[in-house]
Amino acid sequence: MNHFTEIDKAKLPRHIAMIMDGNGRWAKQRGKLRVFGHEHGVEAVRSAVESCTKLNIEYLTLYAFSTENWNRPKLEVQTLMRILVSSLRKELKTFNKNNIRLNAIGNIDSLPKKAAQELEEVIKKTSENTGMTLTLALSYGSREELKLAIKEISIKVKNNIISPEDIDEAIINTHLYTHDLPDVDLLIRTSGEHRISNFLLWQIAYAELYFIDVFWPDFSEQHLVDAIINYQNRERRFGKTSEQLN
Ligand code: IPE
Ligand code: IPE
Ligand code: MG
Question: Is Magnesium a UniProt keyword of this protein (predicted)?
Answer without folding.
Answer: yes
